[in-house]
Structures are given as structure tokens and as C-alpha cells.
Amino acid sequence: MKRLFSSLLAVVLVFALSINALAAIPTVYYNDGSSVLQYSLTNGTFGDAFENMIPGVTRTQQIALQNNGSKDSIRFFMSVQVLKTLINAAKDGAGYTVTLSNSTQTLFTSAPGNVGGTLIGGRDSNELGDLDDALYSSDRNGILVSTLEPGKSDVLTLSITPDATMSNAYQSGVGTLQFQFFAEKVVAGETIYIPGTTVTKVVSTGENGWIYAAAGVMLLSTLVLILTGKKKDKGEDKKAVKNS
Asked: Does position 174 have pLDDT exceeding 70, yes or no?
């Protein structure tokens, strides 16, 4: 019974910490003749995943890219800027592991152990604001994230993991991320710039995930008590039969 309880508890904790880990996917797309990139936010907005971040728990935002045109290949660029860092979190020297990839390759990683990999932020730093320099090209434009032929699509995956060593100071922090996209296409040897709308998103730290975990533990405890009670009742019934 103890082994069953431990297994179920582990499942509930994993489920609770995974809540909001993968948000709905917004879409950035190009159509023939478009002068600007189009956005579809029907399935969620940029940065939804980065609400109520918890130390040691990865939050992952996916963004779909689509070239709905029929003639030209499109180069998509993206940048992420931190307009307001997580103020309370900065008091604790918060550091973050950040990765950005498309469906075929890793575009950026701050994971320790990788070439050039160090935590973003950390004590005596601009905390999450250090992401500004990490996800920009040397000329301060966005970085190339995908080149798509007509009718093709791709998915970007941006993951942010707050360092697991933070203390209780990492609570109730509020910040703002800004997602910027633009594109380029080459027609008759001329590079044509295709601007995109800038989207801002409020992000936060919190402990909502633990609320779900606690609820799950209470549910499991109740279940175990019921099962234990039934087992005890059966044992007493057998004992009564044996003594009669």
C-alpha cells in the first residue's frame, strides 16, 4: 500500500508541476501579397506559458510559423525583449536556463555545459533582463528562426527554467516580455522587408502549481484511507468468520 501511495503521489506532483508548462500555440503567418505578417491568437497568446513560474519548473511556449504563400520563400525573424523584469525575483539573484529551437535545430541555449552556455541572470545581474542581449543578433535585429518555402510551416519552442535554488523571495514577481517578429523575402534579387506586430505579455512568479499538488495529495490521502479501510474491514470479516 505504501508503494502504491508513493507512486500515485509522484504522478500527481508531476502533473501539478506540468500545469501551464506547455501553453496554447499562437501562429505567425504570411500570405501572398501581404505587406505585414499576420498573427492568429485563437489558440493562445505569446508568453501564456510564463505565468506563475516556479523555481526548477520549466515553462515552454511554442509559436507556429506558416508560409501560406504560393510563390516566395520567407525568412522569419524573432526577438524577445524584457521590458520589466520580475522585480521580487531579482532580490534573490534569480538565474534562468533558456533555450530556443525550431523543429530541426537549437537556435540558442544558455544551458550550462553547452558551448558558451551559462545561466541567464543570476546574482548582481539584470536578472531575466539579460535575455535582451541573448536573443538579439549583433546588429540588434531579431535572430533568424526559420526559412520556409511556400506552403511550409515550422514550430518554435522557447523554454525558460528558473534556477531551482531560489528561496521564498521568488514569489509574486511581475514582469513584461515583448515578442517581435518580422520577415524577409527575396524577389528578383531584391530583399523585401515584411514587418510584424509587436506583442507584449505580462509574466509572473507564483505558487499555483503547488495548490494543485496539495489538492492532489489530499485526494490521494482520502483514496488511500478508503482503500485501507476496505482492506481492514475485509480482514476483520475474515477474522470474524474464522472465530465463529
From this structure: yes
